[in-house]
Amino acid sequence: MKMDNVIQAKDLCKIYQMGEVEVSALCGVSLNIKRGEVLAIMGPSGSGKSTLMNLLGCLDRPTRGEYILDGEMVSHLDDDQLAEIRNRKVGFVFQNFNLLPRMTALGNVELPLRYSGENGSRHEKAKKSLQAVGLADRMDHKPMELSGGEQQRVAIARALVNHPAIIMADEPTGNLDSKSSKEIMDLLINLNKVSGTTLIIVTHNPSVAARASRVIHLYDGLIAKDNGK
């Protein structure tokens, strides 16, 4: 039986060395996130949002503190171990889509499966993931042949293909018009309801944050407000 909290973070601190000066980006963040929760992280520039996303997404390690992701202690892993956990446990959706321009939509979605060493069912899993985001008829198109909203759907399909424990969405509607933004948020919320995958959204946009079941506000590297408490 899986635990209720997919994320357990205790006293996360991140200090960067800038020459002879130490800069504290996170100053002791403790946070539990339930499995299947939709959480929005907000705060002004420099508040620690990106740093927290990097730690929760296993892109970086904390200077101090403990982080348990889906039952595994990951705060003290080395770079190779973090990369392996990241590929299995985390799906990423970025503002700029981060698609490889020379690959088709299908090829882009297959990438996480390639990295995990999967061979046999890779093609079929990628097709199913694209079908789930409504792109069954666009699989052979390259990113430049797709609209911004369609490119973000490809990115979401890629994030979902490994059935991760969490999806990290960093300003997922930042480069989209209002109609496409609503469609992408509708898609993410619906996928969360259908699959139960935990969704963490980093955003400046109050209308995006309003779609979350819980919102935390960061200021100066600390959680200043959490409407889930």
SSE sequence, one letter per element: EEEHEEHEHHHEHEHEE
CATH hierarchy, class? Alpha Beta
Instruction: Tell me the radius of gyration.
Output: 17 Å
Q: Which class of secondary structure composition applies to the elements?
A: alpha/beta
CATH architecture: 3-Layer(aba) Sandwich
The span between the termini is: 25 Å
Architecture overview:
The chain has a single domain (36-61, 77-226), classed as P-loop containing nucleotide triphosphate hydrolases (Rossmann fold, 3-Layer(aba) Sandwich). The chain is built from 7 helices and 10 strands. It has helices at residues 49-56, 79-89, 105-115, 122-132, 148-160, 178-195, 206-209; strands at residues 5-18, 21-34, 38-42, 64-69, 72-73, 90-94, 166-170, 198-202, 214-219, 222-226. The protein has a 6-stranded mixed beta sheet with strand order 6-7-8-3-9-10, sandwiched between helices. Strands 2-1-4-5 form a 4-stranded antiparallel beta sheet, covered by helices on one side. The model has no long low-confidence stretch (mean pLDDT 91).
